[in-house]
Each structure stands twice: as structure tokens, then as C-alpha cells.
Task: structure prediction
Amino acid sequence: MFSEIFARTLRAFAQRPPVFSPPLTCHTHSSRLCTLCHASRVSYDDEFRARNAALQEYWRALKESCPLEPLVPSARGRHYRTVSKRKVFRSRGEVRLGLIDPVALAPRHIADVDHCMIEPEFHGAVYAHLGGALLRPSAERIGALLRYVVIKGNYRQGIVILSLENTGGAGTGEINALSKALTRACPEVRGVLLYEGAGSGRYYLGTSDPDSRATARRVYGQSEIRQRFGGKEFFFPALSFSQVNASLVDALIEEATRMAAPGAHSVLYDLYCGYGVFTLTLGAASARALGIDRARESIDAASANAKRQGAGNVRFVRAALSGEGLSAVLPQLRTQDAVLLDPPRGGTAAGVIECIAARRPGRVVHLFCNIERMGEEIARWKRCSYRPSRAVPFDMFPGTDDTEMMILFLPA
Result:
């Protein structure tokens, strides 16, 4: 529903195309303009105005009683993604790296993009170098096994993850040679990891299930990424979930602090906590904080970050983020306690909202990264006698149809 409203509104607001000169335009190896996102066709100012108007229309259609606040702009309207990926495919017998359509998986929806306007500029240089290397006869065996190339990091440097089918130890020499050539050509690459596992499709780790993932082997350099949010330093492994728009995380923390209202007598429960950003920043103002996540690598990183920061009032536990899993770790809560949840695009599993509501926290801060799922999850909160009290949208994904929404729910 929102995507249709946004598309119509964007056509009305986009009065002038952005003025770019190569190599800053989104383009393919064949010099065609990439059309998988809006960044090459619309300026960020026009896109932001259109998104803000579309959100207000969408919110009115949902008929919610609390007003929707203005859209919070991204500090980086373009070149903001700290995570990017390319799918490996074959075109006319050659191995290519391409951007895959976020909805369809058919090969005709893959564009062999050199440079993307919503990715940091050094990402394009990395993909261009690897794309050229994979065309050489010496990389034929790697090209046959490679599924995805992923870059994760910050705006200055990154770690490259090569996702391959199980090699059985074959191709080690070629992979080492590829890694050395890449790090010489692209000094922003501070680490190269090799991820070997079964599976295919849209998941570059083969699966969305953290329990089914293999581990990554370090080929070169660093295996952890460093970010600074809320005045605190965080380290996390490249396989751990991380926000794709690091430029907006501090704004998310500030608004979450206002909504959760942590205090000296309150306890914060952070679900889907990842490597601990919300737990450790909001938890600093709480009596205690508990972070819960299913992924082992995220919980290990969060615990290490807490120790590094000297956060003695914070702890992290690994548990299934389901109604049954949360029932085992969430106690009965008090009116001064708050729950924050930041689930993935698929939303919460059955029973999660109902389990939280049954514990009767005084405040619930729910982040929606898939705005199309928001309506049905708001309805679930209402059935549990919780009502939206404040709603703030964030332009977390410029260039795309997605928008992040943060909503404060209070007991009815």
C-alpha cells in the first residue's frame, strides 16, 4: 500500500532529475542507467519531500488516532549504505557481479552495476576490481563457486565477504591471490573473509536462520567492524546484523531514549538486540538492561562490548525470539519498565507481541523496518490493549521504497 502511494507522490514531486557526472551515476558495465532505485532519477531533496507527503497520506489511511510526526531526514541522502552486496551470475558465458531486484529473483532482474549512488564510493571500486578479476582465466574456478560478494563496514573502510559453495579446500591459492590483489588495489578493504555454505537465493549466507549458518574463515586482515554510536564504541563481527544506514543511528538512539524514558528505577528489555547498540546506550540511564537475540555471534559481540564499556548493569542472553522463547526469559514487568524491539523485515513471530503485552510493560518502543507490515502489527498491539501514542518516521533507506518507523505504544 505505501509503495503505491509513494510511487504516485514521487512522480508529482520529482520536478527535475539530479545532475550527476560519471562516475557518480548509477550505471552498468554497458553504461546503461540502473533503475533499481530512485537515486539516479530523483534528487534527494525531491525524494524526501515526496516520502514525507506519502507517509502522511498512508498514516491517514491507517486511521490512527495519534498524529504522525515529520520524517527525520538521513544525514546522508546518498552514499549511506554501510552494507552492500552483489550476486554472481553469468552473462554470455562470463562471470558478472550484479545488483538483484529486491522483489524478484529471476535472472532478468539482475543488473551488472559498477557503481550505486546509495553505496559509499569505495564499494564501487571494490566491485569493479573484483568484476575484472573474475573475468581472468586464473579465477575461473572461483567464479564457478562464488555466489555473493558482500561489503560491510563504516564510511571509511570495510570487510569483504566472499560467499562460496563448499570448496572442499579447493581454490585456496586462487582465493589468496585474489585477496592480495584486491587489498593492494583498494586500501579501504581492511579484511577479507571466506564464507562457505550450502544454499542459494537472496540470502548471501545461504539462509536467514542464524542457527544454520556456517562460520567465516579469515583470509586477510580484520574480521570485526568498528562503529561509534551514542558516544560509545562498538565492535561486531562481519556476520552479525548491523544497520545499513549508520548516519541515522544516533537519531534513532535519541528518539528511542525519549520514548522509552529510561530512569534510575526502570529496567530496559531490548529484543533483537544485535551487538547491543540500544541496550548499551539506553541502558546507561536505566537501573538494569537485558538484551535478547537469537544469533550467537551477536550476543557474543554485545557481551564483549558491555565488558569493554564497563557496563555492569547490562547483560545479554541468547533466546529464540518467539512467543515460547520469550516466555522463558521475560518476567512480569512494572509500569516504569520499557521494552524495545527492532525485528527484521519479516516482522515479529506469532506470539511475540502477545507475550510482551501479557507482561504489561509501561512503555513499548517498536521499530518497523518494513512499513508494509506495520498495519497488521499495530492491530495485534491493539488487540492486546496497547495503543500508539507517538509515531516518528526515519528516512533510513533513501533511494528505495522502504521507510523506518518508530512507534511508542502505551497500555490502553
